[in-house]
Amino acid sequence: MTEFTRQQLKDLRTEMQTVLLAHDFGDTINLEIDKINVGNCKYSGGEATYQVKFVLKGGKTREQQDLEYYAKLDGIDTTAIAKLQGEDMKVIGYKSRARKNKWILQRLRDGAEFVCNDHVAKQFFKKREEITQ
Length: 133
Fold this sequence. Notes:
This protein is α+β, with helices and mostly antiparallel strands and 133 residues long. Helices cover 32% and strands 32% of the residues. The radius of gyration is 19 Å and the shape is elongated.
């Protein structure tokens, strides 16, 4: 066998994810890792390259940093919880490179992530104007 199959690569990704999550980086290189994600794979024949993303404890992902900026720009309340299709959702990120569905939502029941467009985000998560007297 000189070439990878798709199933072998899927199995390898899950195995890498499991091993990396179980490893304690604090003991070996003095790092506290919050999230680890083994992402996309490029392969050709007997060679495969995976993207691996690490997030330090207290660190913010690119989507979280972009969320702070664009939520302020568009007037989106990042603390709001809205009911979409009968499920409680909140905004957790912003994908600046996406063409249409830029806002990342999280279902509170199980943590599943979904995306939505600007119109839906503004409709459900727009900051409410406070009346001052």
